[in-house]
Amino acid sequence: MLQQQQTRTNSRGEAYVIGPTGAPLTLRDLPPQDTGRWVIRRKAEVVAAVRGGLLTLDEACERYSLTNEEFLAWQKSIDRHGLAGLRTTRLQQYR
Length: 95
Prior knowledge:
It comes from Phenylobacterium conjunctum. InterPro entries: DUF1153, Trp_repressor/repl_initiator, WH-like_DNA-bd_sf. This is DUF1153 domain-containing protein. Residues 1-20 are annotated as: Disordered. It is a single chain. The chain is mainly alpha-helical. It is built from four helices and three strands. It has helices spanning 40-52, 57-64, 68-81, 91-94, and strands spanning 8-9, 15-18, 24-25.
């Protein structure tokens, strides 16, 4: 399992973590609350934000209308198979 990241602060005083692309990720950079299409990058950003302490699990689930089980499945897929594990079209291959 991946270790939890530390939250850092940028020059504007905003908390950030390193996102899945290697770039800093702040709350402003997270997907919109009304996101309907969950591509790999967006899922990975939400997981990184929770792991890094930008959001709690409950805040993420409420913000994005996710169940705890759905979020934990994303996290487990990343841990087991990397970002490719988040592909919905490949889900059966990774089970």
